[in-house]
Amino acid sequence: MTEDEARNWIRARYDVSRETCLAQFADMLREAAAHQNLVAPSTLHQIWSRHFVDSAQLLDHVGAASGIWLDIGSGAGLPGIVLAILRDAPVELVEPRKLRTAFLEQAVATLGLRNARVLTAKVERSHGHAAIVTARAVGSLDTLFRIAAHRTDSSTIWVLPKGRNAYSEVEDAKLWWQGSFHVEPSVTAPDSLIVIAKEVRPR
Predict the structure, then answer these.
(1) Predicted confidence band at 19 (pLDDT cuts at 50, 70, 90)?
(2) Which of 47, 118, 163, 194 has the highest local Cβ count within 10 Å?
(3) Alpha-carbon distances, residue 74 vs 17, 103, 115, 124, 159 (angstroms)
(4) Per the structure, how many domains does the chain have?
(5) What stretch of H or E contains 56?
């Protein structure tokens, strides 16, 4: 997917005000990249395709689910800030590194994202029910379920971007966890996959 294709993908689904907000966030990412390693430098010219659409497509897998969307290890705000721009329901960005959360808090304030909350902590130390859980490049499925299970119940939807090892991660997780698991292709790259898990509970 090219940058033009990515912007057209966003335009086809969201209004101009949200696209404008994303463009402002893209500028913030590029500026902050000079001071800290928020995203891989090689992807700075592909922010819309590699990061924004990759984040936004997760919304297609949650249906009408509302409530708090928990983004574990939010880092540069991908997908958390993108989700907060594109949905009105609450998004909680949990990130243990203070330099990262300083950037996230600046983004929330600058973009006027009243539905976003930033927490400087590991997810293990956070509390409250999450309707949806996302984590991008944080850990294996088994690890994610272990560190965040206390934030979820049987109604929670886990929407987890993964690489080509998604199927093997699902099989490994099934040794310790039961529930409904399926894998969807990413719209951004043929070797990227998304694991959607529901009713996750220990065996």
Answers:
(1) very high
(2) 118
(3) 23, 11, 15, 14, 14
(4) 1
(5) helix 53-56
